[in-house]
Amino acid sequence: xxxxxxxxxxxxxxxxxxxxxxxxxxxxxxxxxxxxxxxxxxxxxxxxxxxxxxxxxxxxxxxxxxxxxxxxxxxxxxxxxxxxxxxxxxxxxxxxxxxxxxxxxxxxxxxxxxxxxxxxxxxxxxxxxxxxxxxxxxxxxxxxxxxxxxxxxxxxxxxxxxxxxxxxxxxxxxxxxxxxxxxxxxxxxxxxxxxxxxxxxxxxxxxxxxxxxxxxxxxxxxxxxxxxxxxxxxxxxxxxxxxxxxxxxxxxxxxxxxxxxxxxxxxxxxxxxxxxxxxxxxxxxxxxxxxxxxxxxxxxx
Length: 301
Prior knowledge:
Layout lengths: L1 H39 L1 H10 L10 H10 L4 H13 L4 H13 L2 H7 L4 H25 L23 H33 L2 H8 L4 H15 L3 H13 L4 H13 L2 H37 L1
């Protein structure tokens, strides 16, 4: 019994170290780029969004709003107070919806992580997250054109942690916070990918999530994104391993959309600013968009 356990630990350790060597560089790159953007470009990005408030772009404003949401390095709990201040300054709620939706789904740090998945998956992630923000803005415009969609009562911008006058120290402190926030999840993701590699037969996995089972595989991937997603950096090793085992690109795209959109901490914040009815509409929108996106990706790729 002990010999069997020792053998399995050796196998898992081997797979863990192989996975870690393959992907650790992407995680470090994501940490560094995320902190650089947060320290040196965050204010410029949010000021750019504030400046478009008075532009006469009409509905087309959802496009730059979504792009700026992708560029924003803030998590949902940081985005909502910023969005609240934008709303009080008169920002249209369809533009806010586009900005917040894409901000939930993607940020510069996660873009750098996702380079580990290869250029095809990276492009699909960037495009699908941006389009999701645009579509969210369009939906809010159509159904809530003459009434507010969000309720930001009580939300105020929090104090910035990046206040050290020394820019190098400010970057180092920000990097340290990023490492503490994501490091454990990253290592857990590597461990889970090693366990998948050791114990899940690739042919069985491909039969469930592969191209031969496109519709059901995409639906399953969109569904498991809800409970499995905890941190962007932690899911990259898993998605990488799943793609290697035969998961279709459409299923991966669906997982990459529903995961961050339904992350439990994000849902808690969104429930407050949306209310029960609009929160249910948000969940339905995310699931529907993820499913349609996954099916389209499988047709195109």
